[in-house]
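Is this the right way to post structure tokens for a design question? Let me know if I should format differently. Anyway, here goes:
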């Protein structure tokens, strides 16, 4: 008999007085092997990792079925916290808020081997900021993030509307037909502080990268249009990271919003495979 998908429920985390909404799916049998913390990109919400158009594309149900707890957060300035943080937060403040929320989560939930971050776009910036602050993380799996824009960063505020949909999505055939109707509740405005700070990301990355010692995996969709991802640019980017473990992957038949497309399951399986690699104890041969 086919097992039903792992249930996904809404929860609220307290981050020292800031209430963050989140989606949670838990390992079916016994304590989790680890907790996968999922961080969405700008203009999205936690449901980005629980694609509504096809249940087989959800990171939350896949992770729970494989023995992990998956916690997808609405980053500060999104979801429940949007009213309290109408302008959003800077990257440093987001890191502090999310860390407080995760500390609170760990008090009431088993975390197994620890926390592993799967992050998309701006969520990847937050993942790097968490690692740079010395947060104890198993690893980072980041998609849709580079360190050199392929667009004019001075126009970022005007690049988040329907006229520039190709930047976010790529060819529409990469997504299940009902994606754009069902994903409408997941899309929201870009908070002011987030948009303003995004223009200076190339400089900010250099500062963060030299303090990141957590294993990192970077994925670029075939139709990634926000970021430069030629070999020379990626060699420069990976060389800046202090971690001894960094790898780069390419995902065919995918656009920037990987986790909402047909390629989502492939990406999520590869991300969890990287988590498995990070969990393997090092041995002298």
């Amino acid at each position: 008999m086919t097992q039903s998908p792992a249930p996904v429920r809404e929860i609220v985390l307290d981050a020292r007085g800031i209430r963050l909404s989140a989606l949670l799916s838990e390992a079916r049998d016994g304590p989790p092997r680890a907790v996968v913390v999922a961080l969405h990109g700008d203009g999205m919400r936690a449901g980005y990792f629980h694609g509504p158009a096809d249940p087989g594309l959800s990171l939350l149900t896949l992770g729970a079925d494989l023995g992990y707890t998956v916690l997808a957060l609405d980053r500060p300035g999104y979801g429940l916290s949007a009213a309290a943080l109408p302008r959003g937060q800077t990257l440093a403040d987001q890191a502090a808020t999310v860390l407080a929320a995760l500390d609170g989560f760990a008090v009431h939930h088993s975390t197994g081997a620890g926390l592993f971050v799967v992050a998309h776009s701006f969520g990847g910036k937050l993942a790097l900021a968490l690692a740079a602050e010395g947060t104890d993380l198993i690893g980072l799996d980041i998609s849709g993030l580079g360190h050199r824009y392929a667009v004019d960063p001075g126009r970022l505020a005007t690049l988040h509307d329907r006229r520039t949909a190709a930047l976010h999505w790529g060819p529409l055939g990469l997504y299940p037909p009902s994606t754009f109707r069902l994903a409408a509740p997941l899309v929201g405005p870009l908070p002011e502080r987030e948009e303003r700070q995004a223009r200076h990301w190339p400089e900010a990355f250099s500062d963060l990268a030299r303090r990141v010692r957590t294993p990192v995996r970077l994925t670029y969709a075939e139709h990634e249009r926000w970021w430069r991802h030629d070999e020379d640019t990626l060699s420069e980017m990976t060389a800046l990271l202090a971690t001894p473990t960094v790898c780069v992957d390419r995902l065919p038949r995918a656009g920037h919003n990987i986790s909402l497309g047909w390629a989502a399951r492939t990406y999520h399986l590869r991300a969890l495979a990287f988590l498995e690699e990070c969990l393997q104890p090092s041995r002298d041969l």
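Format looks fine. Someone answered above. Worth noting: The two ends are 43 Å apart (CA to CA). The longest strand covers residues 246-255.
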